[in-house]
Amino acid sequence: MNGIFKKGQLALTILTIGICSTAWAQTNAPTKQGIHSSMQKVADWQIENFWEAGHGRRVHEPTNWTNGALYVGMMKWANLSDDAAYTDFLKGIGEKTEWKLGSRLGRYHADEHTVGQMYLELYRKTGEEKMLEPTQKHMEYILYHPSQSSLHWKTPYHQDRWNWCDALFMSPAVWAKLTKITGDKRYLDFMIAEFKATTDFLFDKKESLYYRDESYFDKTDNGTKVFWSRGNGWVFAGLANVISELEPGTSEYKYLVKIYKKMAKRLKELQTVDGYWAMSLLGAEYYPTPETSGTGFFTYGFAWGINNGILDKEDYEEVVWKGWKALQQCVTEDGMLGYVQPIGAAPGKAWPDKTEVYGVGAFLSAGTEIYKMLQ
């Protein structure tokens, strides 16, 4: 892949890859066995290296949002593979954290809620109350003491609400799951009200994309608006995870599906010829380096939409195949997923030998839905 980045070969390589990937998508869809093997290899590498720093990443606290995003994908893979080793890995995390949400950034911060998605999924599998109670009590407190902070970026306690687009992956699915599990609609009502507030604030109606936060409203990058790939990937995947918990036909379902479809239409237009989404979605020519976290979340979102009858397969299937092929090109022989952009809030850089756990979570989420597409 290093040849892609030699200036003299860039245009020709992109054109060639585009032609090849389109033909591949039409005639060489991946096999179930190939997808399964690839996910297993990546999941095994990540578990083996989970407690070790290296490859551009440090070891994060078990409740950190980075790991929370990994657990979301790992849980999907554990359910698909039906191998107890993966469920046991996640249970071990829960035992270590005593099934508590994070606290580093405060009770209200969406990042600290992410790990709750895994806890609630394990509760569904086992029915063990200890997996449910801490998360439920945490959210009950917020229900009775909702934040009064503003969504504006430079106001006090501003991240006590979802005023950055990443938050729409981290917290809303926890609230939606709680309603589905308990039957208590208060959780869902709170989530929808906050989701609408965030969308009204950050969603660009012309581009059908989300700004990362208010600080990007007036910024440009090489003359284009700044719409960060992984940021919008957080939203697109988060929408899929939340909608999965809702009853079709309800007002909440219709509201979120409408946003999801608008994003899907625009994101299809922005996929590059080689199957990735550029780190700056409107500035692909300035960010030719592959990036796998945004691409993974988008690929997952599209495959999920097809599987659930929300997107037309004929219109969107090729988007999925191209995205999956692009991700496969970034997996090393031993199972490390490379080209994951490091922690950040805007377009940047990625490298073939650097990874991060949230990128693996996106990869496993995508692979799980693509596997289902082939069933």
From TrEMBL:
UniProtKB keywords: Hydrolase, Signal
Gene3D superfamilies: 1.50.10.10
Family annotation (SUPFAM superfamilies): Six-hairpin glycosidases
Membrane-spanning parts: none
InterPro entries membership: 6-hairpin_glycosidase_sf, 6hp_glycosidase-like_sf, Glyco_hydro_88, PolySaccharide_Degr_Enz
Leader peptide range in chain numbering: 1-25
Pfam family, any one: Glyco_hydro_88
Protein name in the entry: Glycoside hydrolase family 88 protein
Organism in which the protein naturally occurs: Echinicola rosea
